[in-house]
Amino acid sequence: MVSVTTRIYLIAFHTSLAGMLWGLDTGSIGPITQMEQFSSSIGHLSSDILGIYVACILLSASLSSLCSGYIADLLSRKYGILTGGIIVLLGTIISASAKTFPVLICARLITGIGQGQSISVVTIYLCEISPQEIRGTVATVLQLLITIGIASGYFVAYASSRIGGELAWRTPFILEASMAAILVSGMAFMPYSPRWLVQRGRIDEARAVLQKLRASNEFVEDELRLIKGSLEEQSREDASYREIFQKRYIRRSILGVFLMSFQMLCGIDAVLYYAPILFTQAGFTSNRAAFLASGVSGIINLICTIPAQLWVDKWGRRFPLIGGGISIATCFMVIGALYAIYGGKADGVVYLSGKGPQWAVIIFIYMFVASFSWSWAVVIKIYACEIIPTRLRAKACAVQQLSNWLVNFTVALTAPLFLRTSPSGPYFFFGSATLFTTAVCHFLMPETKGKSLEEIEGLFEMTPRAMDHSVIA
């Protein structure tokens, strides 16, 4: 018989296939656009057109993520994920069969609508079904599958690049469509969020779900009482986007939006989307070598996510954000300094002189990916979700994800031109943004480790003096 903890992790792995879909796209889209077979059938993409194609998925994702709050509250968390998966399935099928570039753009926009819908709801769902002692670990399953998807995307694209003809670049899209079909087929069998059920007045169903998802039924009634009390205290009216920024909630709302926005300003997606460009600038002389170097970064991304998966509930939230931020910023500042000293531009192409500086840049890129993977990649999404009250969580997380997608869109759109225009500028910019975010975390972020979602609500209701003591603790 499957244990309760195992059941929760199985649910987490299946729903987090939404993250794996995102990872597959992130890992494969850069190599796809660098394939000769892609250029032969679709045409060569200039830097600005490449940025538009890669980034347009983020634009549609940002819009759908804002609507995801309504859908998650109206249809439920699980059907919010399912409907997003259906749209991703449609978009990837069109991508895999597209014959022209305009059709690829439309397909990518459709895929983004589904991605924004499903990923925005997964973290909410996982936080709400998990017992507090493993909530962080369960919620990190989403990031784990994103990293598995990224690494798989790199190597699937590398392997398919050896295929002759259009099937070379269509194969990654076919894989994504297959994964979306698996996600959709299983979501109807997932349980509802017990907090959503209580919010809808379906108390008996919520009790039944909690009894299946808790190791002991002894405290189910206590948890149910806490959930009901929290929702009653927040009022029985439906949540609105305006309420998120009322005086009582504005501090935590702004903190969540800030963290989700600045997570992307550390430059991680500039590395993941355009890794072949970065490694070519750092000295790799062939596309195939750059593809392999990109794949190594995907493996590092995956491996370094595992420690956070195991220990995030022991580390807490402040240590990974502050310590990880310092490490991330250091890596990019060093790379920026190396390009400032040894780099330059010739005939419009960025170069880096000397084998020593080239290998140092490559190593620090890998260290950057590792630093991000065990810290910001995992903790920011969890923290931004868990600090929001249950009644407001879906809509607040939708706004947070909107800000994340919009910043991500801006980075993805401008990164190719930025990387090819200024040798050191991108690294100094992203490093500075990371240092600023780290300082904000140090001074303004209370610890939430080991607290139930309802206890966290109380934490943000404390007086400013008490809050200061909590931050220090």
Describe this structure in words.
- This protein is mainly α and 473 residues long.
- The chain has one domain (4-190, 234-472): MFS general substrate transporter like domains (Growth Hormone, Chain: A, Up-down Bundle).
- The chain has 23 helices and 2 strands.
- It has a two-stranded antiparallel ribbon with strand order 1-2.
- Helix 2 (17-34) runs antiparallel to helix 6 (101-129), helix 7 packs antiparallel against helix 8 (167-187) and helix 13 (250-264) runs antiparallel to helix 21.
- It is globular and about 70 Å long.
- It is a multi-pass membrane protein.
Question: Secondary-structure blueprint of this entry?
Answer:
Blueprint: H1 4-15, H2 17-34, H3 36-42, H4 47-74, H5 77-97, H6 101-129, H7 135-160, H8 167-187, H9 194-199, H10 203-213, H11 220-233, H12 241-244, H13 250-264, H14 268-273, H15 275-281, H16 287-315, H17 318-342, E1 343-346, E2 349-352, H18 355-374, H19 376-386, H20 390-421, H21 425-444, H22 453-459, H23 464-472
Antiparallel strand pairs: 1-2
Helix pairs in contact: 1-7, 2-6, 2-7, 2-8, 4-5, 4-6, 4-20, 5-6, 5-8, 6-7, 6-20, 7-8, 7-16, 7-19, 13-19, 13-20, 13-21, 15-16, 16-18, 17-18, 17-21, 18-19
Architecture, CATH level 2?
A: Up-down Bundle
* Rg calculated over all Cα atoms: 22 Å
- Beta fraction: under 5%
What's the total number of strands? 2
Number of domains: 1
The name of the CATH topology is Growth Hormone, Chain: A
Overall average pLDDT: 88
Count the helices. How many? 23
What is the CATH class designation? Mainly Alpha
Largest sheet: 2 strands, antiparallel
Q: Provide the helix percentage.
A: over 70%
GO molecular function, one term: carbohydrate:proton symporter activity
Catalytic activity: myo-inositol(out) + H(+)(out) = myo-inositol(in) + H(+)(in)
Keywords: Coiled coil, Membrane, Transmembrane, Transmembrane helix, Transport
InterPro entries: MFS_dom (IPR020846), MFS_sugar_transport-like (IPR005828), MFS_Sugar_Transporters (IPR050360), MFS_trans_sf (IPR036259), Sugar/inositol_transpt (IPR003663), Sugar_transporter_CS (IPR005829)
